[in-house]
Design a protein that fits this description.
Layout (H helix, E strand, L loop, with lengths): L2 H8 L12 H8 L2 E7 L5 H9 L7 H6 L6 E6 L5 E6 L7 H8 L4 E7 L6 H12 L5 E6 L6 H14 L10 E3 L8 H12 L12 E3 L2 E5 L3 E7 L5 E2 L3 E5 L3 E10 L2 E3 L1 E2 L4 E7 L11 E3 L10 E7 L7 E2 L3 E6 L2 E9 L4 E2 L4 E8 L10 E6 L2 E10 L10 H12 L2 H12 L4 E2 H8 L3 H13 L3 E3 L8 E4 H21 L6 E2 H8 L3 H13 L4 E3 L2 E3 L9 H16 L8
Parallel strand pairs: 1-3, 1-4, 4-5, 5-6
Antiparallel strand pairs: 2-3, 7-16, 8-9, 9-15, 10-14, 11-12, 11-16, 12-13, 12-15, 17-22, 17-24, 18-21, 19-20, 19-23, 20-22, 23-24, 25-27, 26-27, 28-30, 29-30
Helix pairs in contact: 9-10
């Protein structure tokens, strides 16, 4: 097979792809990116999107009547180099920041929009803080309404912008001034977006697709449609999936990107999925469309938290907050792990206990708010956390290793935390947020080094103990059996089920552990008992003396055995 033909099949180019000619152009069309607006109310975000795309992102009649964006709007365009992008337009009013947060996650490029006639305003600062907390990978600043002011004023606004973005993800972002009314600067802005996205990394594909739902509606003749920005994997027509946390099973009937039918949707794209098995009224913003069974909603998760410098209040242990992650919004209890309070401008380790369990994975970013004010945000480090002792240094060290450590560090920390409950590859992938191929490669090395102990020879299908945990388990079993043999020397061994009960292991895992210990000559099996390899039923002390006397009496008169 030639290289060109192999590339064609491996990239899964859709059959209905009819754009002309070059391989480069086709690759650009396959790698889609999402751009999100941000900025104060009435600074011209929607007007700018309309000028860029020819699409009005304000879809609600109330928005058109009030001349103000209330909920998320969507548009798309093809940039000068042939690159397709989606645009998420967000509301700028302080009352609708929650709607802004539902759409801004998963974007590749942010457009911070600032009106030339007003310069930096409160929601300009808040939206920038949110972009920073969510670690948006890139962006640019657009000064709009340049037709309303002179060039000297534009320069003053640019100076305000330079001061504003210092120390944020937009610190090195280029600044452009445009007029959506006259069209001045729009072509240059499109080219700038194209240039910036040429350096952007495509979204990762770990083959576990997640579509955080930001809209759910019905289309006559088709049924329920959900939309969102697809991350972590691809979706395909006919796929059986699950909505979490509701747990409803659905099937994809159709997919669209930019109103074009697709058979496959790749990560990083804005997707509309027509699904069967659920009514649109049963689907809420914040649910996640994903593979069945793997994304268990979290009742508690550990985070590394940043409190904004201009937060009006310090954070207190056990306070209630509103947490935004993906497209979801929920009330959560904050458990501080290092102290009783956290001051503005600081970082701290914490645990979130949401009122309702929500699906999160390691590496997800979030924002916390209270009383319509953004207080801070951070990153999920352990998506399924146990309750910790507070001010416990080993816990903090483990969380730091989970956040910043190598793949090996993450594996060892996760397996070590599991202790006597060995975990499998799927659980390790779910907890760590690392793809299975990368985990398998590292696990093989750790097993070869004896640092990780598999319960069976097949690494892919095994469960894993940390070496320290395995050695401790072997020691515990050895001591317990030695004591059992001492107390019951005439017995063949200890009941197999009694040992399982003491170890508190599930049946399958226990059978694997017993087989491992037999193979390593730690124990031996006989029917339904287990024992130490050197153990045989024996008499001891007074019992042995009494038996010896008894045998002597029998040898003297074998036909008249003693009766006492």
């Amino acid at each position: 097979m030639s290289l060109c033909i192999w590339l064609w099949y491996s990239l899964e180019i859709p059959r209905n792809f009819r754009r002309p000619s070059s391989v480069t152009f086709r690759l650009l069309r396959l790698i889609l990116f999402v751009v999100g607006t941000a900025g104060h109310v009435d600074h011209g975000k929607s007007t700018l999107v309309r000028s860029l795309t020819g699409i009005d992102p304000d879809r609600l009649q109330e928005e058109k009547d009030r001349g103000m964006t209330i909920d998320l709007g969507f548009a798309w365009l093809t940039l000068p180099g042939g690159r397709d992008i989606s645009i998420v337009d967000v509301p700028g009013h302080e009352k609708f920041v929650n709607n802004m947060l539902a759409g801004i996650g998963g974007i590749d490029l942010a457009m911070l929009v600032i009106a030339a006639d007003e310069s930096v305003m409160p929601q300009t600062k808040e939206h920038l803080a949110i972009l920073d907390l969510l670690r948006v990978p890139g962006g640019l600043v657009v000064i709009t309404k340049k037709d309303l002011v002179d060039e000297e004023w534009i320069q003053l606004v640019a100076m305000d912008v330079e001061e504003l973005v210092q120390g944020t993800v937009l610190e090195d972002a280029p600044v452009y001034s445009v007029s959506a009314e006259t069209g001045e600067g729009i072509s240059e802005l499109k080219q700038a977006m194209d240039n910036l996205l040429s350096f952007a990394n495509p979204k990762r594909n770990v083959f576990r697709p997640r579509l955080p739902v930001d809209r759910a509606f019905t289309v006559s003749g088709f049924g329920t449609v959900v939309t969102g920005t697809l991350i972590d994997g691809s979706l395909s027509v006919g796929q059986e999936l699950e909505l979490t946390p509701s747990g409803r099973n659905v099937r994809i009937r159709g997919l669209q990107t930019h109103k074009k039918k697709e058979t496959i949707a790749e990560p990083g794209t804005r997707v509309a999925a027509n699904i069967s098995g659920v009514d649109h009224n049963q689907v809420k913003r914040g649910e996640v469309l994903t593979l069945s069974g793997w994304l268990k909603p979290s009742e508690a998760f550990d985070v590394h938290l940043k409190i904004l410098e201009d937060s009006p209040n310090k954070l207190r242990h056990n306070m209630f907050l509103t947490l935004h992650t993906g497209s979801s919004e929920t009330v959560t209890r904050l458990r501080l792990l290092e102290s009783d309070s956290a001051e503005p401008g600081t970082f701290t380790w914490a645990q979130m206990k949401p009122d309702n369990a929500i699906p999160v994975v390691k590496g997800d970013y979030f924002v916390i708010r209270s009383n319509m004010t953004t207080l801070g945000g951070g990153v999920v480090v352990d998506p399924h956390a146990r309750r910790h002792r507070r001010r416990h240094l080993p816990t903090i060290e483990r969380l730091a290793a989970l956040e910043l450590g190598s793949v090996s560090d993450v594996i060892m920390s996760t397996i070590g935390t599991a202790q006597l409950r060995p975990i499998n590859l799927q659980e390790l992938a779910d907890s760590s947020g690392i793809g299975k191929p990368e985990l398998l490669e590292e696990l093989k090395q750790l097993v070869d080094q004896g640092i990780v102990i598999p319960t069976i020879n097949s690494i892919e299908n095994s469960r894993y103990f940390a070496e320290e945990t395995w050695n401790s388990l072997v020691q515990s079993v050895t001591i317990w059996l030695e004591e059992f043999h001492f107390n019951f020397p005439l017995r063949q061994g200890a009941p197999r089920e009694e040992l399982r009960s003491r170890l508190a292991l599930g049946g399958t895992v226990y059978n694997q552990v017993v087989s491992m210990m037999v193979g390593k000559a730690v124990i031996k099996e006989h029917q339904s008992t287990v024992s130490r390899p050197g153990h045989y039923p024996t008499l001891k002390g007074a019992e042995e003396t009494e038996a010896s006397i008894y045998l002597k009496k029998i040898s003297v008169d074998p036909f008249s055995p003693p009766t006492n």
